[in-house]
Write a structure and sequence with these properties.
Number of helices: 18
Order of helices and strands: HHHHHHHHHHHHHHHEEHHH
Radius of gyration: 24 Å
Shape: globular
Strand order of the largest sheet: 1-2
CATH topology: Growth Hormone, Chain: A
Helix content: over 70%
Structural class: mainly alpha
CATH architecture: Up-down Bundle
Strand content: under 5%
Number of domains: 1
CATH superfamily: MFS general substrate transporter like domains
Number of strands: 2
Length: about 450
């Protein structure tokens, strides 16, 4: 059903859908990535290793990834409102259970289940896309996607709540205390959000996929460009998710910064990576998604190359007549927290713009299948957020260098940049086959 953009009631309903879905997505994103902060006191309480810590943060990301295709299709078939409210209610259950977990194994199970929250992205994309006309879809999806800023919510409220709420809890132990209070609070807020969404969003859902066979809705997945877009999204979203949960630990372990300050510094990465998404959509509309992705990948490679450089210096052996010690140190390099934070901020800006640019491709190539294609791209992108934290941990353990985190991102970005460039070259060759083998065009070219 097409949106009637001239009807005043429709305009009000669109605002209701966009506003409440964005608030709901912000909350769900906060729940999905809460272990980035909670994992620090949990690690101390249970004596977890870095590898265990990485898996604790990763399992929630896994479950927030694998159902994105399915939930996107369900939203198209049964309506985004119903599916979103269902996700809110289901996610509240493991949120409450986490607050009572006593062992690492329990936390893994409940953490995996609470990760269901991450699938709300594909539901909200499908829900908003059917309520807005094409000329406003980019803006609407950009605003909704800015709900990624929910990753910073726990960074702000987590450390103060952990410090304020006594370990014994409140009201005679009716609510848990310490770090356990945060998932308990989120469980309550999820129930409230489900009720608000039920009461204040249009009860008449729009279902563009109703009646369409599943096989037809999955047809776009056979195209290579769908998988290419997914790799781009691993770089700009999967890596964003991974860094959102990994950076607090990095600041604590590498720079010796207190958790509350590490969380705030991580927010300096999260804010641009989330709030610049509408700007990224506008830039992609104005200059084209491919041109924007060139700048995004190029800038990210430059920043991650510096971030991957280990602290140290080069030692030169020289004649003792020049230097009594026989050695000379040159090219000393130390990455301090100020330069590190600036470069990470730059990476966050690139990711925020890049996330919108990637999703600009989808309605252009697959206007009838935003739910399915957007779900798959979101699924594979978020799976990157699942695999990257353990990869970071194993690489750091194997090399003894925490900077390998950004070496991994540099290589991943480079592969995506290369694929983008080869695709552009192929398109140019197809558009002008007579120039395929021409490099030097001669003096008469262009006359």
């Amino acid at each position: 059903m097409a949106a009637n953009k001239n009807h005043p009631d429709e305009r009000v309903q669109r605002v209701e859908v966009l506003t409440l879905s964005t608030i709901g997505f912000t909350l769900m994103f906060a729940v999905w990535l809460m272990f980035g902060v909670l994992g620090i006191p949990i690690r101390k309480e249970l004596g977890l290793t870095d590898i265990q810590f990485s898996w604790l943060t990763a399992v929630a990301i896994l479950n927030g990834s694998i159902w994105r295709l399915a939930t996107g299709i369900l939203a198209d078939k049964f309506g985004g409102r119903r599916v979103f409210i269902t996700l809110l209610l289901l996610t509240s259950i493991p949120a409450f259970l986490i607050s009572g977990a006593k062992t690492f194994e329990e936390l893994l199970v409940y953490g995996f289940l609470v990760g269901l929250a991450g699938n709300s992205f594909s539901v909200g994309i499908a829900w908003n896309s059917v309520w807005f006309p094409k000329e406003r879809q980019g803006f609407a999806l950009g605003v909704f996607g800015a709900g990624n800023v929910g990753a910073s919510v726990t960074k702000f409220i987590g450390p103060p709540l952990i410090a304020m709420i006594p370990a014994a809890g409140l009201f005679g132990g009716l609510t848990p205390g310490g770090w356990r209070f945060v998932p308990f609070l989120y469980g309550f807020l999820l129930l409230v959000m489900a009720g608000v969404m039920w009461l204040f969003t249009p009860h008449q859902d729009r279902t563009p996929g109703k009646g369409r066979p599943l096989g037809e809705m999955l047809q776009p997945l056979k195209y290579m460009r769908t998988w290419r877009f997914s790799l781009y999204y691993v770089v700009v979203f999967g890596a964003y998710v991974a860094l959102s949960v990994w950076l607090p630990k990095y600041y604590v372990d590498v720079f010796g910064i207190e958790l509350k300050y590490a969380a705030l510094l991580t927010a300096l990465f999260i804010f641009p990576a989330s709030l610049l998404r509408p700007l990224g959509g506008w830039l992609a509309d104005k200059f084209g998604a491919r041109r924007i992705m060139y700048w995004v990948f190029g800038s990210m490679m430059a920043a991650t190359l510096f971030l991957a450089a280990p602290n140290g210096h080069i030692v030169l052996y020289v004649p003792t007549t020049i230097d009594p010690t026989g050695m000379k140190s040159v090219m000393k390099f130390v990455m301090g927290p100020t330069l590190f934070t600036f470069l990470v901020f730059l990476v966050g800006c690139c990711m925020g713009i890049g996330k919108a640019a990637v999703y600009k491709f989808i309605p252009e190539y697959f206007p009838r299948d935003v739910g399915a294609v957007g779900g798959l791209v979101g699924l594979l992108g978020a799976l990157g957020g699942f695999f990257l934290p353990p990869i970071f941990a194993y690489c750091a353990k194997g090399t003894g260098l925490p900077q390998t985190t950004f070496g991994v991102l540099f290589l991943l970005t480079g592969v995506s940049f290369l694929w983008l460039h080869l695709t552009v070259l192929k398109m140019m060759h197809q558009a002008a086959p007579h120039l395929r083998n021409k490099f030097e065009m001669g003096q008469t070219a262009g006359k």
